[in-house]
Amino acid sequence: MGRFVAGVSKVPYHIRPMKPADNAAIAQVIRDVSAEYGLSADKGYGVSDPHLDNLFDYYRELGGRYWVVELDGHIQGGGGMAPLSGASDTVCELQKMYFLPSLRGQGAGKALAELAMAEARQSGFKLCYLETTAALGEALGLYQALGFKQLTHPMGETGHGDCEICMAKTL
After folding, report:
1. CA distances (Å), origin 41, targets 70, 120, 130
2. For the chain, counts of helices (H) and of strands (E)
3. Read out DSSP for 47-110?
4. Mean pLDDT (10-residue bins), the chain, 171 residues
5. Can you give the pLDDT at residue 6?
6. Distance between CA atoms of 4 and 79, rounded to whole angstroms?
7. What pLDDT shows up at residue 35?
């Protein structure tokens, strides 16, 4: 189920569910964006995830979903949703939202986050949680605009100890 957001975006991007063949491309996007913002693997950011090179199977095993965003036929970003480890079964986590500069400011992050939250609602989740860092100012602004509120402490067991900002939104 692809998605083109006309009238919102300045460029035509396409959001679709991830396929096994997308593993290498989205892993590279995550590595590139992480390097751009100084989010190193030794700090526990998403780039340190041992499943980074096999996200398709990882999300399938978690019972979650991951979408990629294409621009001109090339994967330029992505994001996922999965049950939050170590939390109530009504809490999901918005995960691994990474976008190359070519997609930023085009509405793709908002569209993907809204798609993920709609899927989460349909799957019975009541709360959407996320972790981020102040280094990702654009992302923080997006999450606030989407209605996420900052929490005083983390939830669940994400393993991302250096993500100092924890947020949640009722679905």
Report:
1. 25, 28, 18
2. 4, 7
3. GG-TTGGGHHHHHHHHT-EEEEEEETTEEEEEEEEEEPTTS-TTEEEEEEEEE-TTTTTTTHHH
4. 47 93 96 83 60 93 96 95 90 94 93 97 96 83 95 75 83 97
5. 42
6. 16
7. 85
**In this structure, which amino acid lies at residue 147?**
G
CA geometry: angle 107, 113, 114, nearest 5 deg: 90
pLDDT at 86: 77
Q: What number of residues does the chain have?
A: 171
What tokens were used for 98?
A: 């990474």
What six digits make up the tokens of 63?
A: 């019972």
pLDDT at position 2, please? 45
Give the tokens for residue 7: 């009238």
DSSP reduced 3-state for 8:
coil
